[in-house]
Amino acid sequence: MRHSLRIAVLAASALLGAGGPAHAYPTKPVTIVVPFPAGSQTDMVARIAGAELERRLGKPFVVENKPGASGSIAAKYVADSAPDGSTLLLTTAAIQAMNKSLFKQPSYDPVKDFTPVAQIATTSMMLMTRPDFPANNVEELVALARKDGNAMSAGYGSSGAQIALALFQARAGTDVLAVPYKGIPNAVTDVIGKTITFTFVDVGNALRFQQGKQLKPLAIASAQRSRLAPSVPSLSESLKDYNITSWYGLVGPKAMPDGVAQALAQALQASLADAATVEKLAVAGVEPAYMPPAPFGKHIENEVDNWARLVQLARIEPQ
């Protein structure tokens, strides 16, 4: 393990060295732009990645939060930046795939306007309800919803959660009241306060709510169980073809030098093989899932189509 890490780090360093492909890499600090507020799961992943890149590449990496417009403000900012590697975007499935279908006139093209660097990690959401709610698994929740769906309600605090709820309703054949919120924390507050019945929560926060016994998880929205919560069943175990999996990755402006992207990718690959980094990501509620530039770029293209189908299923009208 140590030998392979050493090779990966030396390779990344060589790419940034004088005369290497990334010779034009700027000496000024590199900014990782985050499309969501400080303290969000995306922000946590960005800070972990930034610290690792700084440590391994010997250049300052700073995180800058530019929230707003479902991430479009940050994405557009990076797309319009100089393609020298000094400005990067910590992106997500929502930013790089979902927004294409959520907006009638997106301010950026998720494929054409960016240079893929690497996928970093994957994550999902948990379907959670209050501890004293009579359903203790998905089957019991579905049975109650089918019996008296009008008496139940579900909140969503993000586009991803909205789609997760819509897919749940479609697969379960239920019609509970869907309630929009400005953010997931707002929906959680109302589940705890018994205003709504259940909601979908990102894994990192879900684990904390579970440990604090404020909410109980009924299932995770991904196709398989998470290594972070192996006792929590996946929704696919109860509902056929259910899968809402998100991911985090790093991209730069289009036409960014290949050497820069490769150097960043190799440093990230080395970091994700480090047990300490994996543990930090686990605390943030995500699992390492490295993907190099070319496959990551293809994955983004496929995800644009995948989320378009899910948005259509959710009957979400583009804004």
From TrEMBL:
SUPFAM superfamilies: Periplasmic binding protein-like II (SSF53850)
InterPro entries in the cross-refs: BUG, Bug_dom1
UniProt signal peptide: 1-24
Stored Pfam families: TctC
Domain of life: Bacteria
Annotated keywords: Signal
PANTHER family to which the protein is assigned, alphabetical: BLR1237 PROTEIN, TRICARBOXYLATE-BINDING PROTEIN
Protein family membership: Belongs to the UPF0065 (bug) family.
Name the record gives this protein: ABC transporter substrate-binding protein
Organism from which the protein derives: Bordetella genomosp. 6
